[in-house]
Amino acid sequence: MITCGMCETENADSAQYCDECGAALTQTPHQHHDYLMRPLEAEAEDAAGGGRNGNGNSSSNQSTNGSASVVAEPAMRRAPAEVAPAQGAPLFARRSTNVSDSSLQQTSQCKLVIQRGHASGKEFFLNENETLIGRWDADGGIFPDVDLDTDDPEAKVSRRHARILRRGDEYFIEDLGSTNGTFVNRGRRLLPGDLQPLRDADEIIVGKTFLRLYLTK
Fold it and tell me: 26 near 39, Cβ under 8 Å?
């Protein structure tokens, strides 16, 4: 760590300027003070002496062809300002699989439709090679593509319940070790890790939620 000679703030070894006061870490406090004050002193001298330098000449040097070349003064270095996040900005973005997203409807080759309950008819469009089915859990960092959190009042669907895989034109479903199981066409409970092929109009049951798979031709 490098200690700033002005404010005694600890900075990283690779830092060239202090994160707190903006001072160059290789400067002494006296040099830093002179560096900051030099522009102010130059302005004061210009105001008092009509813009003349120590040799009695104007601070703007005349060239041989009569044109004036202006000598620019160095700008004062300032510590970088902290950028605050925009008010109300979300901490994370959530992928939308709502039917209202027309772009998903146009590009999707597969969708799941809830068959029973108050959310009957709700659609989820599947556009990825891997689609997670489960329930939203921000604390656990679980953001399923098919989020059944509001459609599963009894919480029978696990946070990471199952996933649908696309391999070319074929689709498979895999249980991810869910508590209440995954079933296709009311057959046997799928074993975790087993890939079950899917066809158009297959019924998929996750927990107590009944879904129907539709493949577009």
Answer: no
CB 39 within 8 A of CB 76: yes
Q: pTM above 0.70? A: no
Angstrom distance (rounded) from CA 113 to CA 201? 10
Q: At 61, phi and psi to the nearest 5?
A: -80, 135
Tokens representing 201 are: 């109009």
Please state, as a whole number, how many other Cβ atoms lie within 10 Å of the Cβ of residue 84.
Answer: 7
**190's tokens:** 């799928």
- State pLDDT tens for residues 150-190: 999 999 999 999 999 999 989 999 999 999 999 999 999 99
- For residue 166, the one-letter residue type is R
DSSP string, the chain: -EE-TTT--EE-TT-SB-TTT--BTTS-HHHHHHHHHHHHHHHHHHHHHTSB-TTSSBSSEEPTTS-EE--PPPPPP-PPPPPPPPTT--SS------TT-HHHHHH-SEEEEE-SSTTTT-EEEE-SSEEEEE--BTTTTB--SEE-GGG-TT--S-TEEEEEEEETTEEEEEE-S-SS-EEETT-SPPPTTPEEEE-TT-EEEETTEEEEEEE--
Q: Is there a contact between 151 and 206 (Cβ–Cβ < 8 Å)? A: no
